[in-house]
## 1
Amino acid sequence: MAGSVKRHYRSELRAAQALDTRRSIVCAASRLFIEDGYGATTIDAVAEAAGVSRKTVFTAVGGKLDLLKVALDWAVAGDDRPVAVADRGDMRQVMAEGDAVVFLRGCAAAMVAISSRVAGLAHALEVAAGMDPAACDLVEHGRRHRLDDARMIVDRLRALGALSSELTSGEAVDLVWLATDPALYDRLVRVRGWSGRRFEKWLSRFLIGQLLNTGHAGT
């Protein structure tokens, strides 16, 4: 029995150490992608920044595009827990909101929080797509995922009876899809110098003004 406990402990310790190593590698890669760009970031540079060997980078995460994909996934979620954003408590609370204006303000806050973490990496992915055909698939995957999220938001507005009669469902989805593009945050906050709070207020007004019928938008 004692031997079994020791083996279990060693197994848990190794798993924890492997997770810490993976986190260090992904964090190092994320920083280098943002600071130096996709093209200039090499596996050797990531290994050096993380304090591991080149082989460990490949074993723990994979190649350069794998590093970017994992970094993006973690940035979207905010951590490395294997829980989808839609299934997390704060997002579930937003989706359960019965007031359409409050709902869209909550959506805007969530979009800004995600974009603030993702914008730099999304820019790196745009550059990668011009160098690596496989990166184009990753770009398309992100677009499809955002489209699914946009449909979920529009479906909620429709269920609340708040969606503007001047929009088709497809048009409404397209507007939400556009609002979730981290490039908007990047251009206005990083390039034009807006504060994150100012951007969030603008995004809230945009969503409310464009998506809600007059009776709801005026509340």
Note: The mean pLDDT is 88.
## 2
Amino acid sequence: MSAFDIFRISGSGIELSQKWMDAVSDNIANINTVRRTSDAAFQARYIVAQSVDYGSGQGGVEVAGAAYGSAAGHVVYDPSNPLADAQGMVRRPDIDLGDQMTQLIQAQRGYQANIAVVERARSAYESALQLGRNV
């Protein structure tokens, strides 16, 4: 492992966490999106991660893709909504706010942990440079 692999590995974790937080925030922002019953509901987006060169010490993580929630959503009675059909029904997304908040916390913690690793590595490298100057 080279001296700067830690920055690349942690950087990949930071990038993944950022994309995860973006997806979760988009899901939360659209939790109350209402559509006609003839249309598909807003589909929640879930980030799929995969390891890169696992066990080699030179890997990291990357976004392998995205998975999407159900397009069926929930059909609910809301006759006052302008998008309601003749029976007063509208389609809402199948998104659980509690689950999304839990995912948001996990993504934030991953982001913070990787930032802490970068800061500690930077500090250690700066200290090593100072030792070299004092000799």
Note: The first helix runs from residue 5 to 29.
